[in-house]
Write a structure and sequence with these properties.
By secondary structure, this protein is of the alpha/beta class. Helix content is about 40%, strand content about 20%. A 7-stranded mixed β-sheet has the order 7-6-16-17-18-14-20. Strands 9-2-1-13-21 form a 5-stranded parallel β-sheet, covered by helices on one side. Helix 2 packs parallel to helix 11, helix 5 crosses helix 6 and helix 6 packs antiparallel against helix 7. Bound molecules: flavin-adenine dinucleotide (FAD).
Length: about 525
């Protein structure tokens, strides 16, 4: 039986978190899996370039929803805590509006409430408690019917939510935006701004994102962990686990074409000219790459490209290894400017870099260590328009860099940057690294109440071709992309199962290879 499953050859294209999880799940069920990755290491956006000799996480830095990874590791017979060293951060993030206005959010909600009471008064602290209650209810309502569901539609959601769930969503107000909802919750503009920023975790504007995105706040309030070795260590660990389960990992291999015979995937053609036959293919790159024909004309039908005006945020980042002074950095630091709306108007309406950017700084050796390092490893990030909207000029990028670092200086944070200790990454660089993405780091923006239903699910219209990653359901972010990998593996296995059932009916009394494939599935 097991040998019949091994005869089913799967090629996974891309070792982003979605591809790694899909490969792991399929291999542990006995399929023969080869994972092809264009870069020279796993992780995709979870990359960790060396800057001035120091490895710096230069993609995702906020590790949340630990339970998703606990389940993934457990399903593969491993324990997350044995494979990776995770430490819960006592301070989730610090937020600064000026040198005298600073607010920390804590892992302990009571500490956050106290901090908000000191910062904005007891009435706002009360409102924070009510906001958390609503965010929790929204999260609990949507986790099953949306996040864990294969490909939710408005109709399926209606059925799955039940009266209670529908009541929770109705309480948000019909069609209200996240910003609109926050205005009802908080009087203090700084608190609106702080919680609105969670829309950017999905690459979206708080003014266009639905109020349901408040669930992202809940995700963070549920805990943020530091990963020893950085987020890239998670990718390395998943790759190691996949290998232990028999996945063949090949780095430095770009797939040029997905081969399709009529309506069915038959394999892939590598940039090297090598051909690999496959019964199924899981594509973990940006889904727009398929629609744009970057994987061959025949694969265009697999997924439509995201229109330029629906692409998510991109970013302008600086990975820095330098001495810092003047500001007591936590692991996650956010430096706000007063006119938040202008930032999103600049990006989404005018397709330009924000004149007054919010600056996020991840100080990768802070938060759990007692002593500040001699030189900090920083990821500094500002939101930017995707390259699909417009190419940015060098002068614009330089001006944004000047604004961003002078904002940090105004808050007291001095960073001793040089050309040698700083690596800059622009939307065009992201586009080069992640073909088809146009530098939009989160696929399609979650703008409007229907946008969440517009992401394709794991099954594509082409037989044998499946999709995984942040540009498909359930959406962007490391845990969500991991979930998409699970969904792709489950969809593929379910198709094998149903095929085996129908062949069992056809070949009555005989033992077919397909019937053996059902063995070991859960
Ligand atoms: C700067 C930045 C900050 C972020 N911050 C956070 C955060 O704090 N928390 C969070 O949860 N998320 C964050 N995200 C989002 C998160 O990183 C992504 O949603 C997630 O990592 C996407 O994973 P994925 O499975 O879609 O694969 P990706 O990471 O997109 O990787 C896809 C892989 O496929 C490979 N590939 C593509 N085409 C081919 C081909 N033809 N042949 C071979 N290989 C191919 C690529 O080389 C790449 O390695 C951030 C992203 C960025 C860039």
């Amino acid at each position: 039986m097991a040998s019949a499953l091994r005869e089913h050859r799967v090629v996974v294209i891309g070792a982003g978190v979605g591809g790694l999880v899909a490969a792991l799940q399929l291999a542990r069920r006995g399929l023969s899996v080869t994972l092809l990755e264009a870069a020279d290491s796993p992780g995709g956006k979870m990359r960790q370039p060396l800057v001035d000799g120091a490895p710096i996480d230069s993609g995702p830095t906020v590790f949340t929803m630990r339970w998703i990874f606990e389940q993934i590791y457990a399903s593969a017979g491993a324990r997350l805590e044995d494979e990776l060293q995770l430490t819960a951060l006592p301070v989730l993030a610090t937020h600064a509006w000026s040198p005298d206005e600073r607010l920390d959010l804590f892992a302990d909600p009571a500490l956050s409430t106290d901090a908000i009471a000191r910062f904005a008064g007891p009435v706002e602290a009360n409102r924070f408690t009510q906001f958390c209650r609503q965010a929790r209810a929204v999260y609990d309502t949507l986790e099953g019917p949306f996040i864990r569901s294969q490909a939710p539609t408005l109709t399926s959601m209606h059925g799955d939510l039940g009266l209670r769930g529908l009541a929770v969503l109705a309480s948000l107000g019909p069609m209200r935006s996240l910003w609109g909802s926050l205005c009802r919750h908080f009087q203090d503009a700084r608190l609106r701004q702080l919680f609105a920023r969670y829309a950017t975790y999905c690459g979206s504007s708080p003014w266009q994102a639905p109020a349901t995105l408040m669930l992202v706040t809940q995700v963070e309030l549920d805990g943020v962990w530091s990963v020893r070795g950085g987020m890239h260590a998670l990718a390395q660990s998943l790759a190691g686990l996949a290998q232990r389960h028999g996945v063949t990992l090949r780095y430095g291999e770009r797939v040029r074409q997905i081969e399709i015979d009529g309506t069915r995937t038959t394999g892939v053609l590598l940039a090297s000219g090598e051909r690999l036959a496959a019964d199924s293919v899981v594509f973990n790159g940006d889904r727009s790459a398929l629609g744009e024909g970057l994987l061959g004309d025949a694969a265009r039908a697999a997924a439509a490209p995201v229109p330029p005006d629906q692409r998510s945020l991109s970013a302008l980042t600086w990975s820095v290894h330098a001495p810092t002074a003047g500001f007591a950095l936590e692991r996650h630091n956010v430096f706000f400017q007063p006119d938040y709306r202008r930032e999103f108007d600049d990006i989404f309406r005018h397709s330009r870099l924000p004149a007054t950017p919010t600056v996020y700084v991840c100080a990768q050796d802070r938060g759990i260590n007692e002593a500040a390092p001699e030189r900090d490893r920083l990821l500094v990030l500002v939101n930017a328009p995707s390259a699909a909207r417009r190419s940015l000029t060098e002068a614009e990028i330089n001006a944004c860099e000047t604004h961003s670092f002078s904002l940090l200086r105004r808050h007291g944070l001095m960073v001793e940057r040089t050309a040698q200790n700083t690596l800059r990454t622009t939307p065009a660089d992201f586009q080069r690294m992640f073909p088809g993405s146009a530098g939009a780091l989160y696929g399609m923006a979650t703008h409007g109440w229907m946008s969440a239903f517009k992401r394709p699910g794991a099954a594509s219209p082409i037989a044998g071709l499946y999709l995984a990653g942040g540009s498909v359901h359930p959406g962007p972010g490391v845990p969500m992309a991991a979930m998409s990998g699970q969904l792709a593996a489950a969809t593929l296995m379910a198709r094998l199962d149903s095929t085996s059932r129908s062949s069992r009916v056809r070949i009555s009394g005989g033992t077919s290879m397909r019937s053996a494939m059902t063995a070991g599935m859960d």
